[in-house]
Amino acid sequence: MSKDNKKDQAKKPTVTQFDKFLDDQLLREKQKIERMKEVAGHGKQTPQQKYNKLYRERPQNRIVWRKK
Tell me, what's the pLDDT at 2? Predict the structure, then answer.
């Protein structure tokens, strides 16, 4: 009986916290790549890009204080 139990335990892969972490990281990387392809393919701007374009510091948007 004990030999059978050892064989069964050897066949089962153990899932550790690190394995879960790696699986989560790989999933997030895959989702990020898909999102980048989607945004690049349609030519749309993300909300961050739109905000950056509107409010980026430009010479005409600068406020300069000078003593009179």
Answer: 58
